[in-house]
Amino acid sequence: MVQKFAFTLLLAIAVLQFFQIDKTNPVANPALDFMNITNPPDEIATILKTACYDCHSYNTRYPWYTNIQPVAWWVKDHIDHGRSELNFSEFGNYTEGRADHKLEEAAEYTLNEEMPLPSYTWGHSDARLTDQERKFLADWFEEQRVILFSESTSGK
Ligand code: HEC
Questions:
Q1: Which residues of the chain register pLDDT less than 70?
Q2: Distance CA 110, CA 46 (A)
Q3: For residue 51, how far is its CA from the centre of ligand 1 (angstroms)?
Q4: Which residues line ligand 1 at a C-beta cut-off of 6 Å?
Q5: Global pTM value
Q6: Burial class (CB in 10 A: 0-12, 13-18, 19+), 9
Q7: Most buried residue, 87, 124, 131, 139, by most Cβ within 10 Å?
């Protein structure tokens, strides 16, 4: 009885493995990329790439466990959802109001430890940010709002 159940479960898990996720990154236009627009210092570029770009750009790196179902589906869902909320590869296409708002939220989410998603840092220790790095990144996001949209000086 138990043996039969275990076998059925194993078989079901094996069948799931046929449903691999699509790991092709869409072709991105470099001119629209947030980092090409803002040209950040190296420390910021490194944090963005290691802590945000896997879910918020077309430059996603897929770790080995994304070959295993159903883990891969769960990861893919974060990537699709992350890109739909904020896609740094499409940043140049955002309207001014949307772009500015996204940067405001990016600063806030980073400071409040909501981003990168805590579940992401389990498997990506290099994306665990110190308080200092969070502050540094959040301040830099705010700075970009002033540079790109003259937030504090526009008086709007
Ligand atoms: C593991 C994937 C993942 C990583 C890594 C990640 N995010 Fe997210 N992010 C998401 C998902 C999913 C959402 C949408 C759900 C939510 O708001 O929690 C989101 C939402 C956001 C939003 C809200 C956008 C809006 O308009 O509501 C901002 C801003 C954001 N992320 C910024 C960042 C920043 C900055 C980093 C890096 C420090 C980062 N994220 C890293 C997955 C990720």
A1: 151-156
A2: 15
A3: 10
A4: 51-52, 54-56, 78, 81-82, 85-86, 102, 105-106, 109-110, 115-117, 120
A5: 0.93
A6: exposed
A7: 87
